[in-house]
Amino acid sequence: MKKSAAVKQLELDLLDESIRQHPAMAEAFPRSYFVKPKRDDTTANGLTRCIIDFIRLHGGQAERISITGRAHEVRNSAGRIVDVKWTQSHMTIGTADISATIGGRSVKIEVKVGRDRQSEAQREYQRQVEAAGGLYFIARTFKGFVQWYNEL
Hints:
The chain is of the alpha+beta class. The protein is 39% helix and 22% strand. It is built from 5 helices and 6 strands; from the N terminus they run αααβββββαβα. The strands form 2 sheets. The chain has a 4-stranded mixed beta sheet, sandwiched between helices. β4 (98-102) and β5 (105-111) form a beta hairpin. It is globular, with a radius of gyration of 19 Å.
């Protein structure tokens, strides 16, 4: 699958930022010596990373939210791991994948790729965020996210 122009631009912006952060290296070596970061928005993990990078590059704060819980190793009397049990997370069910602050506003972004759809808990979380004055966006592509961001 071909990368969108938005993803290609993000890669260039990340390269420029890397060069700005390392002025001594930029002085000593030509631009072609720097490795261009690779990004992909075709998976949920890739799209999440693209969005977080974009928000940070544009002066916002963003972080990935995970409510997986915590793994605990179960060991036998010899000390060997025989099982892994999961403890339920205390995070809010339906929490968005990305929590951000953009221009002083609270923004929650749910990442959905392919046939993935919002659960009822996620729709309720969206309602709560919007009722409190926050912004909520469902990102399906990086290009779509950038268009929404620019309209803000």
